[in-house]
Amino acid sequence: MLPIILRGIDPKTETSVTDVARAVVRGKLSDLVTGSDRVMVGEIIAERLGLDVGDALTVLIPAVSADGGAFAEASGVDGCGHIRGRAGGAGRPAFRQQSTTLRALTPGGGAGEGLRIRFRDALSAPELAARLRPKLPSGFELFDWTQDNANYFRAVRIEKTMMSLILLMIVAVAAFNIVSMLVMVVTDKRTDIAILRTFGTSPRRIMGVFMTQGLVIGWLGVALGLAVGLGVALHIDTIVPFLEQTFHFQIFDADVYDMPSIPSDVRWLNVLVISLSALLLTGAATIYPAIRASRTAPAEALRYE
Asked: How far is CA 117 from CA 11, 145, 150, in A?
């Protein structure tokens, strides 16, 4: 016995709303005929229950009696196919309504009914849903696919936040290394700085020399990291097969993961923000060593020379 969710469809219009027909591995979507008591089950459910095309199964539907007692109503239905999974994709706007078969299985025909809408641009669903919601009659509720998968979106947001913090910490460590390196250079070049100051070099110019040195090092690192990162992201479909063939391993096993390859989507706004943040941090890292170099006293530095 497995808990499941029954969803009634209109097979004639279903293909204009979802790509479920492509996910059918056994049987046909057209086998779902009104009044035939046929269902299609997922591949995992079929494996667990040992179902094959044409096998009969019993559906237990919980209901509540007039006195408040709970009981289960048994309904026999015939399996007509297996579905591999839900498929997505963008298409023309279309609607889907619940079949009469599912209403007949529920006590008093009390199954929830509704329409499903599909748009060409899936990412515009929240905006379009917000526009449609005030126009609906009272008693109707509207949910878009982002609300149905809210947990996944929260998980993605958490991952993005953590990745941003990790990248920020990496850049901060690199900036700290620049500070440490420039401080060591200032300490090592105290005599040279004192000689330059004796020859009339202004503190501002000394400061500019060390800031320029730090900026060149930091910005070259940012440019190199940007080139390597974009190169890998834009050619990931070539790099991953090469690594798998060379080292004889598979990064994403198709039997374990839903995606057999690593997807790559370069968001240029994110690239710009991260690059500018790295440039600003490396630039700020040069300020303290440069100020320390500009405040070097010539007499103190040359006392023991």
From this structure: 15, 10, 18
End-to-end CA distance of the chain, in Å? 90
For residue 4, give the 3-state DSSP assignment: coil
Cα–Cα distance measured from residue 162 to residue 28, given in angstroms and rounded to the nearest whole number: 44
Judged by phi (left if over 0) then psi (alpha if -120 to 50, else beta), residue 76 lies in beta
Return the domain boundaries, the chain. Answer: 11-117, 120-148, 151-301
Rounded to 5, what percent of the chain is helix, strand, coil? 55, 10, 35
DSSP codes joined into one string, 62-124: EEE-TTS-EEEEEEEEEEEEEE--------S--EE---HHHHHHSGGG------EE--S-GGG
pLDDT tens for 102-136 read: 665 665 555 566 777 777 777 788 888 888 888 87
Taking alpha carbons only, the member of 185, 174, 176, 287 closest to residue 224 is 174
Distance of CA 150 to the CA centre of its chain: 12
Q: What pLDDT, in 10s, does the model give residues 4-35?
A: 777 777 777 777 777 777 778 777 777 777 77
The two structure tokens encoding residue 281: 């941090």
Cα–Cα distance for residue pair 305/303, rounded to 1 Å: 6
